[in-house]
Write a structure and sequence with these properties.
The chain is an alpha+beta fold. The protein has 2 domains: 299 residues, Zn peptidases (Aminopeptidase), CATH 3.40.630; 113 residues, Alpha-Beta Plaits (2-Layer Sandwich), CATH 3.30.70.360. It contains 12 helices and 16 strands. The strands form 3 sheets. Strands 1, 2, 3, 4, 5, 6, 14, 15 and 16 form a 9-stranded mixed β-sheet that branches. Strands 7, 9, 10, 12 and 13 form a 5-stranded antiparallel β-sheet that branches. A two-stranded antiparallel sheet has the order 8-11. Helix 1 packs across helix 3, helix 2 packs parallel to helix 3 and helix 3 crosses helix 12. It binds (2S)-amino(hydroxy)ethanoic acid and manganese (II) ion (2 copies). The site of (2S)-amino(hydroxy)ethanoic acid has 4 residues, from loops. One manganese (II) ion binds next to loops.
Length: 428
């Protein structure tokens, strides 16, 4: 039965969630549009606001050494292992309001409701607001969630943004001590599972006509820095057959990557940025840099596509007397969601009288990092036209309301004993 036929009166939580997402959207590094980059002034201001909401919901809060904002509600007695909830509060440039923040605000609303009901649970609940999921400011991604999972690579501290600031310098400016990052890692047995509510960022739920879905797995992803080297020359005097034109070569490579992805089943390749340092109208470009993002639900398919793309780029460079470098700086394996958590989320959604379709996530999420710490689950919320990574991103208040209600019901019926993969360090 879809939402349309289920008789579901909004509880008002949805309106409150939407109002908070509007407030959070105001924290931006670029007035007039939403751009909230990791460890930026707007990230710090948004973090303070999120911490205040966490405290108003009865949670104790702290900022960890990687800049994650963490709220904790104790269970029936202090110090119990925690069910982790959350998402990210950093954004892409010119972002929508919901990619990331929805998961944090909905989790806080769920904790608030559980506390209001006076429910004393056999586990603690923690809400985590991660800061580097998008990986836009630095050539890094998932730094916050990796710190929590204990998989933070300290070489990331040397990564620099376009202004030349390093992650290490930015962390100190944010008020964090980079040397303390290893201490941000959760110890064995401290966590039970991780649940993230996130907009679908695709068209499936809208096409089915239902507000909520359950994620089966997150596609694996690789990110590359590609540089094409030619020879700068005079646009007016250099005959066409004597040019080593880096833009023409890069353009052919972009189309080759697109063709390889189109020819493959279940693979997407995206060139999101392309730059010509020192480019000028009257100069044959000698150097071009572009990004390449590869995703696939099956890791072997992604690896095979990378090989095919590398071979195509080398052949184009050879034919055009160019050279090319393709450096991989991010690689995250495809990540399955825990079946028991997926079933629990599906039961909670069905308990609202809704369908609970299962679908894969082509988008990456912090759960890819947290999965090395404990089992993960994700609930998707319908978004208009499947649009995301675009200021036109939008959701319905009623759907936000249903997401909070389903999350509350999931938490109240959560039984760690039913997890397929007991949390690291647990006795069983
Ligand atoms: O790139 C992604 O899939 C995510 O939005 N960071
Ligand atoms: Mn996201
Ligand atoms: Mn995103």
């Amino acid at each position: 039965m879809s939402a349309a036929s289920a008789d579901i009166a909004p509880t008002g939580a949805g309106q409150a969630v939407m109002a908070r997402l509007d407030e959070l959207a105001a924290f931006t590094d670029e007035p007039g549009r939403i751009t909230r980059l990791y460890l930026s002034p707007s990230h710090r201001a948004a973090a303070a606001q999120v911490a205040a909401w966490m405290e108003a919901a009865g949670m104790a809060t702290h900022v960890d050494a990687a800049g994650n904002i963490i709220g904790r509600l104790e269970g029936e007695h202090p110090g119990l292992p925690a069910l982790l909830l959350g998402s990210h509060i950093d954004s892409i440039r010119d972002a929508g309001k919901y990619d990331g923040p929805l998961g944090v605000v909905a989790a806080i609303a769920a904790v608030d409701e559980i506390r209001r009901r006076g429910a004393l649970l056999p586990f603690a609940i923690e809400v985590l607001a991660f800061g580097d999921e998008e990986g836009i400011r630095f050539p890094t991604t998932l730094l916050g969630s990796r710190a929590v999972a204990g998989t933070f690579d300290e070489r990331s501290l040397a990564a620099r943004d376009i202004e030349g600031s390093s992650v290490e310098e930015a962390l100190r400016l944010f008020g964090c001590d980079p040397a303390a990052i290893p201490g941000a890692a959760r110890r064995r047995g401290e966590t039970l599972a991780y649940i993230e509510v996130h907009i679908e960022q695709g068209p499936v739920l809208e096409r089915i006509g239902t507000p909520l879905g359950v994620v089966t797995a997150i596609s694996g992803a690789s990110r590359f820095d590609v540089t094409v080297y030619g020879r700068a020359g005079h646009a007016g005097t250099t005959p066409m057959d004597l040019r080593w034109d880096a833009i023409s070569g890069a353009s052919e490579m972009v189309l080759a990557a697109e063709a390889i992805a189109k020819a493959a089943e279940n693979l997407v390749a995206t060139v999101g940025t392309i730059a010509v340092p020192n480019g000028a109208t009257n100069v044959i470009p000698g150097l071009v840099r572009f990004s390449l993002d590869l995703r696939a639900p099956v890791d072997a398919d992604r690896a095979a596509a990378e090989m095919r793309i590398r071979a195509a780029f080398d052949a184009i460079a050879e034919q055009r007397r160019l050279s090319v470098s393709m450096v991989r700086y991010h690689d995250a394996a495809a990540t399955p969601c825990d079946p028991a958590l997926a079933d629990g989320l599906a039961a909670a959604i069905a308990g609202l009288g809704l369908d609970a379709p299962r679908l894969a996530s082509g988008a990456g999420h912090d759960g890819m990092a947290i999965a090395s710490l404990c089992p993960i689950g994700m609930m998707f919320v319908r978004c208009k036209g499947g649009i995301s990574h675009n200021p036109a991103e939008s959701i319905l208040a009623e759907d936000a309301d249903l997401a909070v209600r389903a999350l509350v019901d999931f938490i109240l019926s959560f039984d760690p004993g039913r997890l397929q993969r007991p949390p690291i360090g647990s006795s069983s």
